[in-house]
Amino acid sequence: MRAPVLWVAALMLVAVSGTLAGQGTCRDGSECADCDSKGLCLKCTQGYGMTPKRLKCVPCKVPGALGQFCTNCDFNAKYCKACFNWEYEGTGIYARNGRCERCLDPNCGICHDGSGKCKTCFRGMAISKKTGKCTNCADKNCVACDSSLKKCRTCYSGWAPNAAGTCVPCANANCDVCSTPAQCEYCKPGYVKVGRRCEKCLVANCDTCQPGKPNVCRMCVDYTPPVNGKCPQS
To answer: Has residue 82 been placed in a domain?
Structure first.
């Protein structure tokens, strides 16, 4: 995802209480994430900046086409100090001279603020040691590879890197995520880990069985809790 437009939804995940436990209520309780014992704001929620006397958090109003991606601005709300990025893959947007701009490499997910030099490429790519640019990994099933582009570190679901760094299918056909071809971490829906294997859940109307116990249900298909490890019949 190279230019996500739903970043506001991610910002809504930030809890805004306006109160610091044991130290009173923030004077600006609406958008202040943390305050001192006198109620002066120490930190605003994402997308807001503090007024000079720390009495209020005001929305960032950074000029430019990508100004809405600013998550941390200064007192006048027009100078951006940090732009929004997804935690793992990134948005390809960074802060430079108080503005939000796109990384210099269009295939870069996370780049250094100020310089725009790439740190992490979008999935399936890596910074090539030959060109210094984000380039596709040689293996199409690879999520992240080294700078040679040939050795994979992380593969897509259902695959795992072998000793040579090549993505190969999980040894167990019912495994959804494996860390090595032989080591399953998560089974496909309707299956449960029993040792290093994935076995089918044997309880009727069960969505997820207890780990290691294919005869005991943990959650039924309609998300109701089971009774004595069983699900009600429809």
So the answer is: yes
Last residue of a domain, one of 44, 76, 101: 101
Residue corresponding to tokens 């490890």: 229
Q: How far is 131 from 171, CA to CA, in rounded Å?
A: 36
Contacts for 88 with CB less than 8 Å, ≥ 6 apart: none
Tokens of 108: 């870069």
Whether the model pTM is above 0.85? no
Apex 1 CA angle, 166 and 43, nearest 5: 115
193 lies in some domain: yes
The answer to whether residue 26 is domain-embedded is: yes
Least confident window among 29-38, 56-65, 89-98, 199-208: 29-38
* Per-residue model confidence as pLDDT tens digits over 7-44: 333 333 333 334 443 344 677 667 888 888 888 888 88
Give the domain range for residue 19: 7-101
Which of these, 197, 227, 225, 224, lies nearest to 212 by C-alpha position? 197
Cα–Cα distance measured from residue 28 to residue 97, given in angstroms and rounded to the nearest whole number: 28
